[in-house]
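Researcher: Please predict.
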Amino acid sequence: MTKNIKRIVLTGGPCAGKTTALVRIVEYFSNYGYKVFTIPEVPTLYSQGGWNYLTPNRQLYYEGERAILETQIALEDSFLRLAEVCTKPTLIVCDRGTLDISAYMTPEMWEDITAKAGTDSHRLRERYDAVLHLVSAADGAEKYYTTATNATRYEQMNEEGLRIARELDKKVVKAWSGHPHLRVINNNDDFNAKLNRVLKEIAHVLGLPQPIEEERKYIVEVVGEIPVDSTESDITQTYLVAEPGTEMRLRRRDWQGKFVNILTTKKKISETEQLETERQVDNNLYESLVKQADPYRQTIRKKRRSFIWQGQFFELDTFLQPVENLTILETNGIKNHEEVKFPPFLRVVEDITGKTEYYNYNLALKR
């Protein structure tokens, strides 16, 4: 992606707040001097045009999904060409992206239609600088769930509809797992807090300074079965030699046998703000950068399981190296006054929010 063009997917389950968020994004970043393009939700265009997702005609269903994918790609490419001739820095926001389509079909059908389009999941995932998933109101904010904003929605306002909406929400998250900048935006008691988190994440992608915020973290014990729809990955994390006041982290994530390498730089620019940048690096550059490892820190290895529970997104890290017998639960986007909805399969041992000795950067220190 060109330096002054960023392409972001805004996705989520049914009734997640995408429509309202899009309006806020255009207004907010236009004020920052960005030209903001928004790409409409393609499946809705086809549904409004007469195609029915629930059609019993399997060939019609197949051709519709294939057409949606091809239209999505063509629309994104055409808006990218528009962005390339803009004199302003440009933000392209896709109301859902190509990988969303895979949540509505079998893996075999998805593989078939992507092959016919001359692409695959890996290449489609690389088209975007970030993916922001807004959790459906059906999961943890049921009183706000409505079908009034989308007449074509088939997940109706009843228990069965809520169940379908929750399952679909998790399928969409699963489809985007493996993207280096996937951020799941929790439901909040205050919907404005949810929207502000969206703006904060996009500002982060654009390289705008952000307030320093503590993430909520807890030492936990696993006392039950973790949901089967959780996403598992193995993480190798190496800290690099950096100038004073700057932290450089090289992370390799092994997800389903595929490696994603991310270089993150954090620089504190004041007591209350920091500038954080991320970029994906290929395997050759990764191997070169690893040689610049901080000699005073060890490599961290951990197993991560990510899941949504009652509308809140959690990351559960089990450390393998350099510490053992340590499992940390982390969730983002929960305000200080909000209650964390701890899953019943975890037992909280200690709240370590803000305790610097448990920062990965400090856990890596050689003793």
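Model: The chain has a mean pLDDT of 87.
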